[in-house]
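Model it.
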Amino acid sequence: LQHYFIQSNLRMRYKSTRGGVSGLSFEEALFSGFLSDGGIVMPETIPHISRETLASWSGKSYIELAKAVLPLFIPTTEIPASDLDLLLDKAFRRFTHPDTAPVVHLPSGLSIMELFHGVTWSFKDLALSCVGQFLEYFLDKKQQHITVVVATSGDTGSAAIESVRGLRWVDIVCMFPRDRLSEVQEKQMTTVQDANVRVLKVSGSVDDCDNVIKPCFLDKPFAAKHRLCSINSINWSRLMVQTVHYFYVYLQMCPACDQDVEVIIPTGACGNVTSGVLAHEMGLPVKLSCAVTRNNIVDRTVREGDFSAAEEVLATLAPAMDIQVPYNMERIWYLVTGGDSERVGGLMKEFEEKKGIRVPEDIRGMVRERIAASSTVTDEGVKETIRQVHADNEGYWVCPHTAIGVHHFLHQAATAPLRAVLATASVCKFEEAVKAAGMSLTHTPAVRELLESPVHCVELEKDEDWELFLRNTIEGIWERNNQIK
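Modeled.
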């Protein structure tokens, strides 16, 4: 895995973490989910940001920083600089805060980066608003149709739907588990009436959904015929955009660029964490810390090298993080080993066969150099933290996912002189968690309107053949679009 300085004219290409696919363009990477060898997309080379260049970026707005970072991964031969600037302006225009993703410093000494000022009130909006623009850019040129298939444990689904709803060349099928999401999270998907959106509500976990979706992508003739695409955190471009979070929070916390900054990340599938590791590999002086729910495979992997899935996914107050198979750990291992596809592929194949592996000591050590700390937080810890932050900071609310990160901040030792927590969603999506903490939340007009909107989705029971239903749904989309042609 080679690094290059940003002054280089090297043309960025992409490959599989498992080594069986290489030489992909950005466009090909954008439209890829699981690759034919079972791996996922990563860049063949990593751009390196010098400390001088980093210091020159201090003072840039979030959007200006995105316009500096993202061209390092997108060749101008595919999206010219002027076009990319316009796409990014369009992607971020629906954000409601003038700073897009502000870093707030609370009276208690807590610093929080608010990533929830997009249309679905979640950090997923920041990346997926860009992904939607990239998809439309390429599809409009070729007048080709794709079908996006995504599983969600909470916020990805609504952000993905918002990024593509109404687009001429895109249909989306979104699966989510029944009784595992907040009412607002669910309604943000099930109330969408656009003809290119289909929502499936299933009796199971998000990992069950992933186990249905992955065979569709690995079926090469089926995936090619229907031009399947994923825009959950399997999708490379989403992780690419999320690297901007880390550069922005670092420069807000340390504009002189002369200290390390610890960034505390509430996580489930490790997509956001992978973006942080990538930023570190690019030269950003950040120390990453992970905080998770009782579905704590990430914590066990980081601290003990125990990458093994539990028997079931536990329902917690932070549903977007209730995941037992954090597939982006594959990307993290790829990054820390310098792109050792053979070792990474071997580890993942063993995991897929046994559902549990011990991470080799040297790889575990390399991970700990980037992810310096991790912790598991219970629902009691979430409730306690929501109450404490509210009491100590003049009524400031944190969502249950952010509360997990704040709990780490409050109870775990610092790994750098400066510390910030990523706030992944607005509390307005999680009234259930606020009530569980013994508090009450007043609905905003937007939330009231959402909760009163009519629902449109298909429900699937445990004993039904979900994969067959999904394939038939995708086939129906293909037939409808061919009739329109």
